[in-house]
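Co-fold these.
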Amino acid sequence: MAKVIKVENLSKAYQLGNFGTGTISRDLERFWARMRGKEDPFLKIGEINDRTKKGESDIVWSLKDINFEVEQGDAVGIIGRNGAGKSTLLKILSRVTSPTTGSVKVKGRISSLLEVGTGFHPELSGRENIFLNGAILGMRKAEIKRKFDEIVDFAGVERYIDTPVKRYSSGMYVRLAFAVAAHLESEILIVDEVLAVGDAEFQKKCLGKMGDISKGEGRTVLFVSHNMAAITSFCKTAMLLTNGSIYNMGKDVNQIITTYLTNFDTMDQNKGIWNNLNSSYQNVYFSPIKFEIKDEGGNTINYPIANNKKIFIEITAEINELDPAFTVGYALYDDQGQLIYWSYHADTDENTWPKLKIGINILKSEIPIRTINEGKFRIEMIASLHYRKWILEPGNNNPAIILEIVGGLSDSPLWIMKRPGILAPVIKWTSI
Amino acid sequence: MNKLAEENWDIEITPKNNLFDLKLKDVWHYRDLLVLLVRRDFVAFYKQTVLGPLWFFVQPVITILMYTVVFGNLAGIPTDGVPKPLFYLAGTIIWNYFADCLTKTSTVFRDNAAMLGKVYFPRLIMPLSIVLSNLIRFAVQLVLFIALLVIYWLKGAVIVPNGIIMLFPALIILIAALGLGLGMIISAVTTKYRDLTFIVSFGVPLLMYTTTVIYPLSTAVAKYPAYSWLIKFNPITAVIETFRYGFLGKGSFSWELLAYSTAITIVILITGTIIFNRVEKNFVDTV
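Predicted complex below.
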């Protein structure tokens, strides 16, 4: 098989912290060093990108010495923890940003689907946006025209095609955007977590379409996802990234996923507590200080706990400005990265919301007993100004803790082992 | 596939750009995008308005009305014997074209950060689309200018267009290039240092007073001979004066001044291109 992507010694450094008045003097220093033919004093080699530890320099290597090749028609699934360098790699491959050192060689056209709906203009109609979005993604007008009906049909928005997209429901918006991107005629397609949107039926349709692209049409796909089920069902090769380098890459997709789930996904795990050590995530509306799961006795749950025990989520945070639209809560994921539910402090009737005040707030919530199944779960803190903006957007390196549930599934003598399914609620039956 | 074809790569992604490589081939491939972006700007401008494209006229008409009242009648600044609205309109449409190109281009990276951070297309497309969509607006306003000119001519005003009018296309290119070049320099610097944004936001309106939008160069030279170099120093002055001279037959036209403007424009455009090229690859990390 012909190689279509060849990556050699690829590295990418990012500067941490704020840009401010210090930046200009540092830039001048770097410039002066370069002029004298010296090495950049701020790019220290040899520091590992581990976001949980505070490094010595302000530079962090998001990718370090990556080497790999991809063959034509391959579907590569890229996995790794948040911050492992997956998105950086895709950004470099799609030419959104450039590497610090090293090179990438590509045969054919690359198009990326890093976020659906990029470049949609709310005032323009669906028709106009299909053309605009297609052009942004690199299609010629004639090409879009040829595929127009197919795109509209795939998105299922025929009735609304001449309505401004600002009046679309969010589902329609996403469907239309994905449809445009999926009909690109590029040799290489880069996809980053787009399947996290849309309803189940549409997600299935998307996965099917992506399968067609790689299997039927012989095009190459690079796919980043936290959804292991999607990776196994559709990728022929898997690549595991840890701290900016490739840990393992190969055809044995299941093996690599298992390695990831057992070793890396749980690396800072069995941690029922998260402390804001380096005061990150600062925000006037909400600065998290502590995120913890506690048992009935008020102890941190750092151990596997039975499903019939009370489990409390506790969020400690500082609030400097009260906003009526502010909501905080958590997202619960299973070990495959599948979202189980979101919960916000303001989910109930308005009169029963916990009172928030300026200063330190502690919020507490109980995870319903015997609702989720046995297994390992990731609990991620989320917060937003409702319908305005995310403060902690799900899937964005937010504070997270791990909960492991073992046993205590039911009082029935007939239900003693883990059953299949995400949920394992104990539901009462009666006879009439 | 044989070994030779194996080494035949289409795209190479490396840390640095060639500073003078504008990737015009790439831009050409994306020409449909350029057209669509221009169309988007034009259509989105008047979507959900009652007057629609008429709004392109409203702004200059009200502006020259104000100028006529305040600067022409109240302050009594002479206009080289040209009917006042015509005089102001000539200066205003040229100046607006420059100012719009400059201010829009200078924030192009920040305004489109979300889009530019997700997909690749030749970055040069964005500033080019700004220059082109403003050109459409300029063309619409030029129609207004010519209509006004004909009206005054029919009413018997002394308006004698002359051969210099042939320079008009060159003048437009000069203004566009100047706005684009300056805008690119500012946009590149503001990705990291936001300070310049503030300078642009209050500087551009102030800069207008150092060009001959609301007064003729001849009056400035006559009143402040010592400081008139400041006005001539501004490359836009020559463009406005040439434009007025060509269309209205009044104004201070000199080849030297125009040559000076051209030279400055070329220097700024080249500098802008180099800086833009340097920044475009990595601005996503800092913007």
